[in-house]
Amino acid sequence: MIDHSLVKRFRQEVGDRLAHQRRLDQANGLQPMTGEDERQFARALISQVLEEHARSEIGMGRTPPTLEEEEGLAAGIHAALFGVGRLQPLLDDTEVENIDINGHDRVFVSYADGREAMHEAVADSDEEMIELIQILAAYSGLSSRPFDTANPQLDLRLPDGSRLSAVMDVTVRPAVSIRRSRLGKVFLPDLVGNGTLSPEIARFLQAAVNARQNIMVAGSTNAGKTTLLRALANEIPAGERLITVERALELGLDQFPELHPNVVAFEQRLPNSEGQGEITMAELVRRSLRMNPSRVIVGEVLGDEIVTMLNAMTQGNDGSLSTIHANSSMEVFNRIATYALQASERLPIDATHMLIAGAIDFVVFIEKRNDYDRGGSLRRYVSSVREVNGCDGRVLSSEIFAPGPDGRAVPHAPVQADLGGW
Questions:
Q1: Last residue of a domain, one of 182, 215, 243
Q2: Over residues 382-394, mean pLDDT
Q3: Same domain for 193 and 177
Q4: What tens digit of pLDDT does each residue of 259-271 get?
Q5: Domain for residue 275, yes or no?
Q6: Which InterPro entries does this entry report, sorted A to Z (predicted)?
């Protein structure tokens, strides 16, 4: 067990010495340290502080920390300075999938195999946890995001790619949910290997991406929509220019220049405390069309940006990708129509369905099943692929892959689109 009071104290000491060195460098006209240089310098300072602590303990006749305890303290101090504090061990565990925090000492962890367990406190108080989230909000995104009484909701991407959602003041205690990004650099064969896709569906999706079909990935929360979207995006040839639009950066396609050397990632900007400076998803989608994109990828459709996105898909940006929350592949069309009603265009239902029919080529529905209550584990798999065939007052579609005996999608109807001989 790490003595978190020591971590907190030493983190302050190292932070003060680091800040002092920054001031000295500036006064002497030296270039500021790079992020990596600062981390290396901090490691040296941590070793220095721990050595001083050990000498102090010996001088007072007490037993100094063991080597193992020193390593734990050093890791904790470094995580407090540059990571996410006591959350860091959970984010370093590749088997952790979701972290739900209902107050600093009520921490619930979900694992990849479907297990759930309680974890130790992530802070000494709710106030300390809020302070940690505020620090992350200030430095993790493209712009600082407030998290306070006036702005009690927060969404952001952590440095490791995980998605954090936090609320305060609208709940009895501050609450945080972190959804891990366990598969960052993922390909369709990887999803075949873990049972998400059948080899036939993988070949079909590969052909659809190469044929520049517009694809909407649908599913429930935590079903694996973003992971599948990443795998589809990684089928796009490296020579294409991609524009991604997200509420909080999550896709991270720009982190792999060997796969996508030409990527611009847009992130929604929230208004400041005076209500100024907001840049909405809809505005970013419109802006993306002026940035010479080969394809536009919208991380998640949750509102009025849907009309702008559908218009983009019908204006020559073939091969666009997006995700949406839905309970079935058929329900996607009604969900889109509901969002369109909320947009400034106030499109009527029939007009929205005509727009959908002209914009979307395929809907891929991914399902999540918790079978661990019967001795199994958490399963994710594509259960339906629907092709849009046209419009007659409502979207006309056919389910080309439908749920089979075990729920996984199997061939059901012929594909009408030209997928290059698939």
A1: 182
A2: 94
A3: no
A4: 999 999 998 887 7
A5: yes
A6: P-loop_NTPase, T2SS/T4SS_dom, T4SS_GSP_E_ATPase
